[in-house]
Amino acid sequence: MSALADTMELPADYSNPLATSRPMKFTHSPNDLVLDRYTIRRGIGVGGFGEVYFAVSQAGKEVALKRIQRNLEVELRGVSHCLNLKHLNLVSLHDVCRDADDQAWVVMEYVAGPNLREVMDEAAKSAESDSRNVLPSGLFESQVRHWFAGASAGVAHLHSAGLVHRDIKPGNLFDDNGIVKVGDYGLSKFISASHRSGHTESIGTFHYMAPEIGRGQYGREIDLYALGVILFEMLTGELPFDGETPQEIIVKHLTDSPDLSRVPNPYRNVIHRCLQKDPSKRPRDVAEMLSLASMPSDQTPVLAEVVTSESKPFDSDSSRFQSKKRRHADPVIAAGLASPHAGGASMVLNSSAGEEPIARAVRNSFSDARAWWRALETSPGIKLVLAVSAVAILLINTHWLLPVLSMVGFFYVPYYVIRHVVLQLSDPTSYSPTSTDSQGLRQGGPHAHAVANVRPAVKPTMTKAQVRSLLRTSLSDRTRLSRSAEWATSGMTSMIVAGVLLLLSSVIGMRSTPFTPMALAPYVWMALVIWLGAFGLLGIGKFWEGSDGEGLVRRLVSSSWGACLGLLAFVLGHFLMVPMDEGLGRDIDATALPVSFYLESGVPKAAAMMGHFALLFALLRMWKPVDPLRRVRLSLWAVTVAVVGEWVVHQIVPVPQPAGMLIAGGVIVMTQLSAPWVKADAISTV
Ligand SMILES: Nc1ncnc2c1ncn2[C@@H]1O[C@H](COP(=O)(O)OP(=O)(O)OP(=O)(O)O)[C@@H](O)[C@H]1O
Fold first, then answer.
1. According to the model, what pLDDT value does residue 509 have?
2. Distance from the CA of 67 to the center of ligand 1, in angstroms?
3. CB-ligand 1 contact for 26 (6 Å cutoff)
4. Which stretches does the entry tag as region Disordered (predicted)?
5. Rounded to an integer, what distance in angstroms lies between the CA atom of residue 41 and that of residue 308?
């Protein structure tokens, strides 16, 4: 058989778009015998190093044969190091040898499943043809974690063996019956790079190249960089750095920052770190990278697990990823997903580090509205009428919309700047679960190192109480700076809520009164007192969130804060000249009230205001609305209890009404709306 024998066309089932852009010719035909013992069955594809064939040995063993291009020099010294690597997440290299024509061949394990390139292209096609626009542009989270966990485990094993892959890209990651396998490792080291003419034919390769490769640096950081690019691509369906020409792509790798706005946490932080231009700023190793992604970071091979329940698409935080149907039967999920961190819990804990929550909520509402608009099954004519009506309504209402929007902007811009500055100062990793808690949370763990050093993907059998306690630990482990940053965020959020409250209450309350500063004063006073009450509670709550706590101590602390709030309310009331002699209630006889607490007219003195709120805050369990692990984000029951409780306290230490009740209810609403919250279903899905 001659090495330059027949050619054959690419099989129809081959779907790599990079490769199919031109007709593919193979040197060997089906049934050719190569290396004296392998019968070629078909050509699989042609890459930068040469042609790949599917072949069987005389005994019937299926292998993939890579025929290295003639003009590439193969350095066999050191290859044995690669040949003897064994790991479930690595495509096994059986041999590297030469045939009678001195042609170099790599004999390796044949992987029947698709590679990640094909999976992502298929996903992009489905998303494109999805007229309802419900499919995500990238992969589903279960798929992302499956590929990322498997690829990382393979790469970690290479690194631990002292090897750098150098050519990590989706085409080199395979799915073998639910097990991700990394292929092509080590080859680029042993095949002279200077002659790799084929590489320039496929610009796909440059998309995953770390900037320092241009300087001839090939540390293990280049593999982490490539994994970061792949993670980005899986999540968004797009490349972080793309361009028309290889030069353009390379320049972007060297100078551009990736746009991470569409990437949800915790992946945003991982990608941010992996795509650092300076290799020393990337994660130290695969383990650190995985811990940033809240995935198990040991090197045990990552097996697959059959998922029977509907796999959840991305956290609703990011509507780009939401979907109601699944792309594949999606039979597998990496063992990494078995970590409780894989659920929403850690994502919610991390949410404060990532995108600004108000902007995210607004953006989500817009994308929801856009999705609703697209899904609207109605004639274009009706759509046009609807659109014109909406614009007309907006224009007619500009007289109040513009002031409201400017006011929102007035609060929002300084808030955004302060939050940004505070977060910049804080260590971004402090928002990620610490390695200790990921260890702790991985206590699905008695199973973790089972037979044959393979970790079966067993779902952790943790009770809700255990998960809560681990989340508490995770909350208490956070740095003071990160808590302060979160407090600042909550404070600013509550300020915006207070602004909206003030606006609404004054618009409603002053319908029939002329607008004067005196008439507005009580509303400003109430909004300020509510905001101060909530802000203080949010701050105190930062000390409480790490434990379920001792009720009595917490009541005393809240009561003290209640007394302070009463004093502040009193001082502010005087400062704003709020008429305090009204509204004690017809049933209360002002003359019978103690003179040390009230004026003769019934106006409460500072002591009455302090006593009222101290008593109220001692009565209510004020640590509940600030607890990130509370059952629901906004409990109307808690609001009702606060209002009724205030009425009860008012019978003992009266204050002007309905201001008192509004303040009590307002503080509870605002606190709940502004305090961080871990979704209950994030806990129950664990
Ligand atoms: N062990 C294998 N089993 C099955 N298919 C394989 C195997 N190795 C490679 N292939 C397939 O063969 C084709 C060519 O692979 P090859 O690795 O030569 O090219 P590439 O990855 O596109 O580029 P390069 O090798 O330059 O990085 C690809 O479609 C790849 O999925």
1. 73
2. 11
3. no
4. 306-326
5. 36
Compute the 3-state secondary structure of the chain and give helix, strand, coil in percent, each to the nearest 5.
55, 10, 40
Tell me if domain 32-109 and domain 116-293 are identical in fold.
no
CB of 353 shorter than 6 A to ligand 1: no
What separation in angstroms does the CA of 139 have from each of 144, 176, 260, 446, 613?
A: 6, 18, 16, 31, 52
Dihedral over alpha carbons 232, 236, 239, 241 (to 10 degrees): -80
- Does residue 619's CB lie within 6 angstroms of at least one atom of ligand 1? no
pLDDT at site 451 = 26
Main-chain dihedrals φ then ψ at residue 396, nearest 5 degrees = -65, -30
Nearest by Cα to 677 from 628, 631, 634, 636: 628
Residues of the chain with pLDDT under 50: 1-22, 193-204, 304-354, 426-461, 684-686
Binding-site positions: 66
Locate the domains of the chain by residue range.
32-109, 116-293, 464-682
Nearest CA to ligand 1 atom 9: 52
Q: 3-class SS at 96? A: strand
**Ranges assigned E (strand) in 38-191:** 38-46, 50-57, 62-68, 93-98, 104-109, 173-176, 179-182
Fold (topology level) of 32-109:
Phosphorylase Kinase; domain 1 (3.30.200)
**Ligand 1 probe mutation, 44, 96, 188, most atoms within 8 A of CB:** 44
Which tens digits make up the pLDDT trace of 91-128? 999 988 888 888 888 899 999 999 999 999 998 888 77
Residue 58 CA to ligand 1 centre (angstroms): 23
What does the pLDDT read at residue 664? 93
Residue ranges for the binding site for ATP?
66
**DSSP secondary structure string, 444-472?**
TGGGTT-GGG-B--PPP---HHHHHHHHH
Which CATH number describes the domain made up of 116-293? 1.10.510.10
64 touches ligand 1 (CB under 6 Å): yes
The secondary structure of residue 528, as a DSSP letter, is H
**Ligand 1 atom, smallest distance to 172 CA:** 21
Return the amino acid letter for 653: V
CA 236 to the chain's CA centroid:
12
Q: What is the pLDDT of residue 463?
A: 58
Atom 29 of ligand 1, nearest CA residue: 45
**How many residues in total does the chain contain?**
686
What pLDDT sits at residue 462?
A: 52
- Residue 11 is given by DSSP the state P
Ligand 1 in reach of 604 Cβ (< 6 A): no
